[in-house]
Amino acid sequence: MPRTLTINGQEISARSDQTILEAAQDANIRIPTLCHLDGLTDVGACRMCLVEVAGASKLLPACTTRVQEGMQVQTDTERLRAYRRQIIELLFAERNHICAVCVANGHCELQNAGIAVGMDHVRYDYLFPKLGVDLSHERFGMDHNRCILCTRCVRACDQLEGAHTIDVMGRGAHSLIVHDMNVPWGEATTCTSCGKCVMACPTGALFKQGSTVAEMVHDAEKLAFLKAARERKVWNV
Amino acid sequence: MNLEELNATAASERLAQAKKRHHIRVCVGTACQALNSEQLAKELQAELRRRGQNGDVEVKCVGCPGLCSLGPLVEIESQVNGQAAIAGTEGGQRKSILYQFVKPEDAGEIVAHLGGEPIKRLETPLDQPFFTRQTKIVLEHCGKIDPERIEDYIAVGGYQALMKVLTEMTPQQVIDAITRSGLRGRGGAGFPTGLKWGTVAKADPNAYPTSVPVGIQSRKFVICNGDEGDPGAFMDRSVMEGDPHRILEGMAIAAYAVGANHGFIYVRAEYPLAVKRLRTAIRQAQRAGLLGNNIGGTAFSFNVDIRLGAGAFVCGEETALMASIEGGRGVPRPRPPFPAECGLWGCPTLINNVETLANVPPIIMKGADWFASIGTEKSKGTKVFALTGQVAHTGLIEVPMGITLREIVFDIGGGIPGGRQFKAVQTGGPSGGCIPAQFLDMPVDYESLAKVGSIMGSGGMIVMDDSTDMVEVARFFMEFCMDESCGKCIPCRAGTVQMHRILTKIQEGKATRRDIQILEELCDLVKHTSLCGLGQSAPNPVISTLRYFRDEYEKKLAADETNGKTPQPSAQVANPSA
Ligand SMILES: Cc1cc2nc3c(=O)[nH]c(=O)nc-3n(C[C@H](O)[C@H](O)[C@H](O)COP(=O)(O)O)c2cc1C
Ligand code: SF4
Ligand code: SF4
Ligand code: FES
Q: Which of the 8 DSSP states describes residue B25?
């Protein structure tokens, strides 16, 4: 059953099983995201996609909230812009995101988000924790200092590859992406070396070995294609 | 066991107890047990045997009577003029005395004085406000009955409410009774319990894809939340330790009302005694046919399992708790869908706090109107608080909703020791706020506490005197939230770290006005954008101390920020008891 709602005053229609984010995408309205990736289930973790819904007491994540008839959604208010900028600044301060020396420079969703929210400086203290770089895998590498803990790699590995090699260990600021039971990636016996996690990663945290500064281009769209192709059994576009 | 058998068990147990001339009740709650009270109970028994009095006198190990600061506590209830004395029930004339700070060595003296004059050295008055100002519903049996004997619970009317709903009431009638009683969730948010039960009862178990493990025959679930992670809170522990059957009975009634056949009690592993007593209780109830298949000979079946929490505060949050029971990482997920529609393994799930469920049997037995007559218009019944901090009597108290903070702190709590002055009381733990002296005459209920920037929470209540550094209080709770953040969402994971840094900077005298501004912006961000209640409430201690004690923050700013002037001392808090 179709639903009619407004996003930023624009009237749009959507299927009842669509999220606000999907409905907005279909209507070419951009809502910022980080933990969302087409083709993976949503977890509502990064909070970049929060929107204001008339009558709701709280801000709602567009990626996990289903559309409802008559919903009035605002995606780009001053308040939301201020929150998004704070969230991006918190991420830049949390680990090490010096873009100039990053393999993903120019191809990074975090960098793009920083530009989009107009971040000209970071108001918080840089924490620069000393985290490791795992180069034990023969084809891929992982730099924990660049990881924003979006869990896209975890979900890609679990949901698209079915290997569930990757998960999160620890909690809070000590959370860390691990392979198998926290072994070096190269020793993770469940890893099929498919590279889906590398495709899914929004930053330079996961990369192909041998990439140097600005060379690491993620092709995350391939994952969405793969998922859609499997579901519809259509393999040529 | 059916109703007749239940009544027969109750009668014979009461008769056996009535024959005893003296009942000695020794608290073996966690606090008193740590002070060797189990040994004391053994010594008492040995002494009675030695004197050949063991047929006459009953020594009972009981749960916490509340006044933990005077423990180990021993209560002695004796017959007057040969009349029957029945533990925990009306009828028969009884005389009680209470002994404080009792050691195993005191056993001989206590037995020697039975029936005679109380031992002055150990006696503490039972008519002190700590006891007389309380209203006990949830804790009515704690400190009275032996939590490891189902017969003791049955003797005081236990499992009668379950029998009543199974034989006389429809599930809808049970839900109506709970709704009419006005009971609200005691786990923190105060959600109306009847409304929640009604939602689960109506929910369609097939609305979401489910993955119930093989062997569990249920498509709806009841969960008792006994994670109790607030620092300093021990209300739920006392109920689980002191009256475990009460929780099982409440759960079974809830299960009948919502149509569930399986339940889980989620207890933190730091409560080994509670776990042990709950396990014993489950086994006893199963053997008595009060849990399991065809309870009381009816068509209703209900099984209960225990799951241990591994010590993460966030696992008290309902969606994280369910993830933990399912065997996953204890991490919250966005709601909706709410557990009532899509909970454990995708099934409609009722999750209630220990204290909420413990209120259920008396509501069924004494009626919704009786319960609704206690408390205020929107907050019914009583609330158990763990009273701690700079107050004369610390311990567990149960008070009617609507009582004032002043009555709690100065009458029941006995005021501030050491000649100091009252400064603030913190309620709601890391999710709550500090309430200053000007609100001491405010009634304690959900709405009033929220109005002054705190919450009822699960029942932690920390009294602070005028020596307390409020910025340090805020920093303490922020450190707790930072350590306990699950790390899933960015505002809480990274925001609590930055807030804690700023608070530390303030404490070190290195902060500027701009830092306080950044702190306030972060409070706003974390409160309004975090995924779960942990992050959404983490800024509360900072917000409330900034609201009422801002001068303390400003006094600590770096010298150049106060323009070299000597900082102003904070306003003197008037003695609230004067
Ligand atoms: C971080 C966090 C911790 C919580 N811890 C507890 C807890 O220890 N015990 C509890 O009963 N509820 C806790 N809650 C509340 C539960 O999520 C849930 O609302 C409650 O168990 C519902 O029961 P009630 O309706 O009977 O209050 C917590 C909530 C949050 C956000
Ligand atoms: S490694 Fe990349 S995809 Fe995985 S959690 Fe970190 S930032 Fe996200
Ligand atoms: S608010 Fe904190 S505890 Fe809750 S989901 Fe976010 S990071 Fe985890
Ligand atoms: S994209 Fe919705 S919360 Fe991250």
A: E
Q: How many CB pairs under 8 A join A and B?
A: 90
Average pLDDT over residues B132-156: 94
> Burial, B399: exposed, middle or buried (Cβ in 10 Å; 0-12, 13-18, 19+)?
buried
Q: Which residues contact B450 (CB under 8 A, 6 or more apart)?
A: none
Nearest CA to ligand 4 atom 3: A44
Cβ of residue B426 closer than 8 Å to a chain A Cβ: no
Sole residue written with tokens 């108290």: B397
Residue A197: inside a domain, yes or no? Answer: yes
Question: Checking phi first, is residue B575 left (phi over 0); if not, alpha (psi -120 to 50) or beta?
Answer: beta
- Report the top-level CATH class of B157-369: alpha beta
Inter-chain contact B498–A172, Cβ cutoff 8 Å?
A: no
> Tell me: the pLDDT tens digits for B488-517?
999 999 999 999 999 999 999 999 999 999
Measured between CA atoms, the residue of chain A closest to residue B485 is A172
Q: What is the pLDDT of residues A174-186, one digit of tens each?
A: 999 999 999 999 9
List pocket residues of ligand 1, CB cut-off 6 Å. B 185-189, 191, 225, 227-229, 313-314, 316-318, 351-353, 356, 458, 532-534
CB contact under 8 A, A171 and B522: no
B510 has a chain A CB within 8 A of its CB: no
The answer to whether residues B533 and B317 touch, using CB atoms and an 8 Å cutoff, is yes
CATH level 3 topology of B19-126:
Glutaredoxin (3.40.30)
Domain limits for position A108: 82-232
pLDDT in tens, B118-127: 999 999 998 8
Topology (CATH level 3) of domain B470-574: de novo design (two linked rop proteins) (1.20.1440)
B568 to each of B438, B466, B545, B554, B565, how far by Cα in Å? 21, 16, 17, 9, 9
Are A18 and A113 contained in the same domain?
Answer: no
Token pair in block for residue B160: 């009668």
- A148/B490 Cβ within 8 A: yes
For chain B, say whether A126 makes contact (Cβ under 8 Å).
no
Establish whether this prediction's ipTM goes over 0.90: yes
How many folded domains does chain A comprise? 2
Q: In whole angstroms, how far apart are CA A174 and each of A36, A89, A166, B271? A: 22, 18, 16, 26
Q: For B85-121, what is each residue's pLDDT tens digit?
A: 444 444 556 789 999 999 999 999 999 999 888 999 9
Of residues B299, B271, B305, B269, the one with CA closest to residue B285: B305
Q: How confident is the model at residue B575 (pLDDT cuts 50, 70, 90)?
A: very low
pTM given for the model:
0.93
What is the model's pLDDT at position B462?
94
Measured distance CA(A213)–CA(B333) in Å, rounded: 36
At A226, the pLDDT band (50, 70, 90 cuts) reads confident
Between CA B567 and CA B559 the distance in angstroms is: 9
**Residue B572: in which H helix or E strand, if any?**
none
For residues A117 and A137, membership in a common domain is answered with yes
Extended beta strands in chain A, E state: 2-7, 10-15, 50-53, 60-61, 72-74, 133-134, 140-143, 166-169, 176-179, 206-208
Per-residue pLDDT at A237 exceeds 70: no
Q: Determine the longest span between alpha carbons in chain B, in angstroms.
A: 82
pLDDT, tens only, B453-475: 999 988 999 999 999 999 999 99
Pairing of strands B22-27, B57-62: parallel
Residues of B with Cβ-Cβ distance to A65 under 8 angstroms: 334, 336
Q: What is the pLDDT of residue B560?
A: 65
CA of A87 to the centre of ligand 3 (A): 14
Pocket of ligand 2 from Cβ distances under 6 Å: A 147-153, 177, 200-203, 205-206
The minimum CA-CA distance between A210 and chain B, rounded to whole Å, is 31
Reported as a single tens digit per residue, the pLDDT across B224-257 is 999 999 888 899 999 999 999 999 999 999 999 9
